[in-house]
């Protein structure tokens, strides 16, 4: 069996973000044991079953000495575009409760919004296609919180 090594030249980077699937499987362990990681951000919807995976993921990163920078509550609320009524489809404040349990901060909330899905499907993330929107501001707030924590953490 041949072993292949993939080399990627990313050039000069300020940050490299790796989006991994939820859980504590081989992918997460291999990445955390073989690549120097400055911090992990745990993203979860507010529903109980997703929060169980988020809790396991945070604990796994702590066990392998990767700092957990905080939690992001994804699909936190749906606001009707017509009447502006807000509905917590996946439950309310689940990530906040988990953050308290884990002694972590919530870095922000990402709403369940059609513009996020449409922009992503077109390959134009909402922070580029609609930079002044509330949805883009949610992502930018989370990014600034992550950067703030990375800059203040010891290397």
TrEMBL record:
A GO molecular function held by the record: 4 iron, 4 sulfur cluster binding
A GO CC annotation given for this chain: mitochondrion
Record-linked Gene3D superfamilies: P-loop containing nucleotide triphosphate hydrolases (3.40.50.300)
Presence of the UniProt keyword Nucleotide-binding in the record: yes
Keywords, comma-separated and alphabetical: ATP-binding, Nucleotide-binding
Pfam families linked: ParA
GO biological process, one term: mitochondrial respiratory chain complex I assembly
Annotated protein name in UniProt: Iron-sulfur protein NUBPL isoform X2
Species in which this protein is naturally found: Mus caroli
């Amino acid at each position: 069996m041949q072993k292949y090594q993939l080399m990627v030249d990313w050039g000069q980077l300020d940050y490299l973000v790796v989006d991994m699937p939820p859980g504590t499987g081989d992918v997460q362990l291999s990445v955390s044991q073989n690549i120097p990681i400055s911090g992990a951000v745990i993203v979860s919807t507010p529903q109980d079953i997703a929060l169980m995976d988020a809790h396991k993921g945070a604990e796994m990163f702590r066990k392998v000495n990767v700092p957990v920078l905080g939690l992001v509550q994804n699909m936190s609320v749906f606001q009707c575009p017509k009447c502006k009524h807000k509905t917590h489809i996946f439950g309310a404040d689940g990530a906040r409760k988990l953050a308290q349990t884990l002694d972590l901060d919530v870095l922000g909330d990402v709403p369940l919004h059609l513009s996020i899905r449409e922009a992503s499907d077109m390959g134009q993330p909402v922070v580029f296609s609609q930079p002044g929107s509330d949805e883009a501001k949610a992502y930018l707030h989370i990014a600034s919180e992550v950067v703030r924590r990375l800059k203040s953490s010891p290397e």
